[in-house]
Amino acid sequence: MGQLVNYAERELRLAGLFDKDSDYGAMLGEAVMELVKVFADQNHSGLSATLVLNIFNKVARCKPLTPLTGEPEEWNEIAKGFFQNKRCSTVFKRDGIAYHTEGVIFRDREGLCFTSRDSRVEITFPYIPESKYVDVEEG
Questions:
Q1: What pLDDT does 2 receive?
Q2: Residue 71 and residue 91: Cα distance in Å, rounded?
Q3: What per-residue confidence (pLDDT) applies to 137?
Q4: H or E element in which residue 32 lies
Q5: Which runs of consecutive H residues, i.e. helices, occur in 42-128?
Q6: Which of 12, 108, 109, 115 has the most CB atoms less than 10 A away?
Q7: Backbone Cα Rg of the chain
């Protein structure tokens, strides 16, 4: 436990994430340390650590672990005839056509990413949400 906790605390301090004038008043550093301590207490091996981190990363970002099915129980009707997927908030359905609003993510020269109406990609089920990154020139 000691090595990981010490490493994380040192890196977070170097990044200034415990400083009172940092984003969220040092709360980010404290929150990450809390997670690191729980993770370290679980005593994972290299393989289980990787698996846990990958699974946690998905569920913490509300990303599904298995393909979306498109079955009726996966949808919330948010307006008359307009549905949002319960398992992936960026998947919608209107007039029987399902689409992913983050199917294409645009990236500018500075690495800033954005979506637009052109980001929509029609999908069929089963579907594993994925995004294609497209580099764009200014203008």
A1: 85
A2: 13
A3: 86
A4: helix 27-41
A5: 46-60
A6: 12
A7: 20
Give pLDDT, residue 139. Answer: 60
Q: Closest Cα partner for 88 from 119, 56, 125, 61?
A: 61
Contacts of 25 (CB under 8 A, 6+ apart): none
Looking at residue 4, its amino acid is L
The number of residues in the chain equals 139
pTM of the model: 0.80
Question: CB–CB of 120/101 below 8 Å?
Answer: yes
Amino acid at 98: A
Residue 134 and residue 104 in contact, taking contact as beta carbons nearer than 8 Å: yes
- Contact predicate 12/24, CB 8 Å: no
How do 82-85 and 75-79 pair as beta strands? antiparallel
| pLDDT averaged over every residue in the chain | 95
Predicted confidence (pLDDT) per residue in 77-103, tens digit: 999 999 999 999 999 999 999 999 999
**Diameter of the chain measured on Cα atoms:** 55
